[in-house]
Amino acid sequence: MAKTIFITGASRGFGKLWAEAFLKRGDNVIATARDTNTLNQLKATYGNQLLPLQLDVNKRADVFAAIEKASQQFGQIDVLINNAGYGLFGAIEETTEAEARAQIETNVFGLLWVTQAVLPVMRKQGHGHIVQVSSVLGVATLPTLGIYNASKFAVEGLSETLAT
After folding, report:
1. Phi/psi of residue 28, each to 5°?
2. Mutual angle of helices 111-125 and 60-74, in 10-degree steps
3. For a Cys-Cys bond, which of 1, 58, 113, 161 suits 63, CB 3.0-4.6 Å?
4. Which domain holds residue 109?
5. CATH number at residue 149
6. Are 49 and 29 spatial neighbours (Cβ–Cβ below 8 Å)?
7. How many domains does the chain have?
């Protein structure tokens, strides 16, 4: 039976690979990206099976609107893959306030906004799975990735809380 999968950060990398794999399997996919032009080939191949949505996970109201649109289009969201994020390289003392805030905003708050938006949908339908894409750097650290490490430690804590 086909599932409906909501994937953030689907413009490239793992997000795009997962989107294509689920589409090939016959699932419905809501693929979000800041630039949906990166999803044109998938849309041409899979048609209405794919709902590409422009989304910046840092914009909370837009996140809730995207989840609502996806839920209305397909009737449910079976799986959320919270994949949007990026890595910030640099020594902690050299990281600017703007860089540090942007890293935490995207990797932590962006993930939180999508999680908050999808949970009521999943509770109402009585099922659903949330996959939070983290990193080994959420449990161990590497030099020159301090702020990224901190963001992934936060994702691990949030995810463990949801799992209990």
Report:
1. -90, 140
2. 30
3. 113
4. 4-163
5. 3.40.50.720
6. yes
7. 1
The tens digit of pLDDT for each residue in 40-91 reads 999 999 999 999 999 999 999 999 999 999 999 999 999 999 999 999 999 9
What are the distances in angstroms from CA 62 to CA 66, 106, 125, 151? Answer: 6, 14, 22, 22
pLDDT in tens, 79-113: 999 999 999 999 999 999 999 999 999 999 999 99
Q: What is the CA radius of gyration of the chain?
A: 16
Is pTM beyond 0.85? Reply is yes
Q: How far is CA 101 from CA 24, 88, 90, 136, 151, in A?
A: 37, 11, 14, 21, 10
- In the three-class reduction of DSSP (H, G, I as helix; E, B as strand; rest coil), residue 21 is classed as helix
- By annotation, the residues acting in catalysis are 134, 148, 152
In 8-83, where do the E strands start and end?
28-33, 50-54, 79-82
- Token duo for residue 16: 């795009």
Cα–Cα distance between 159 and 29 in angstroms, integer?
Answer: 23
